[in-house]
Amino acid sequence: MMRNFTVHHDGVTIPVSRGGRGRPLVLCPGLNSTQADLHELAGLLRRDHDVVTFDLRGHGLASAAARYSFAAFLGDLNAVMAELRRLEPDAPPVLAGYSLGADLAVHFASEHPGAVAGLVLIDGANPVPEPFITEALLPEFRAMWDDMVKRQEARRGTPRQVLLTSQEILDLNVEIDAVRSGILGRYGKVDRPISMIMSTSMAGDGGDGHAPRLNRNWRAGVERLRRERPDIAVSWIDADHGLVFTHAREIAEIVRGARRASARTQDTP
Fold it and tell me: pLDDT (tens digit, 9 = 90+) per residue, 160-178?
């Protein structure tokens, strides 16, 4: 049975949905994605988890906001997690995040020791050695997000809408680059099991243009993280950054396998 409730904070309204069975798992969407977009993955995870999904400000059924920033989105996650702690103070959930949602998950876990049972990071929170948004790529990214915002007009008023402008999306991506430049230190403060599920072709599988360099940068970031935290389990999926939409079953199976491995570890004397 699905349960729905609303969290109010910082002048915004955050819609939350919950359903499933097993250990609680919070699924945090990323920039330009909504809980409706993650419907298939959430449904698969509900076979093993009591799954909580929600929308970030300006996304889906959440209200618009006066400002959009990494700190503001982290505040949305904090508010949802605080409500869950109020409802069930003795049941820390697994915290899963996609793209920006993965970065938010790492920051939350680093700031709230003991508040999560573990992290599942899907194609995000990557300490890449080089920024993605460079001067050379700026026009290309700007055109891409201009086009995306135009296509979003057909989704206005639906659970899949995104209310941000292309400039706000661009500014946020620049900010995310800056956040990731310092995220290694955040990992050092997380003492819970971490699983990463990453795309092999984050920027697409084209052999020309900027995609090969961006994909190498993506893999180099994971390799950099593994040198610092060899205990982190990393799974690669042959897909681009849309893997949560195209490979939901594969992702759910990886999460299920990590859960079984964790249970075996806990049962080992």
Answer: 999 999 999 999 999 999 9
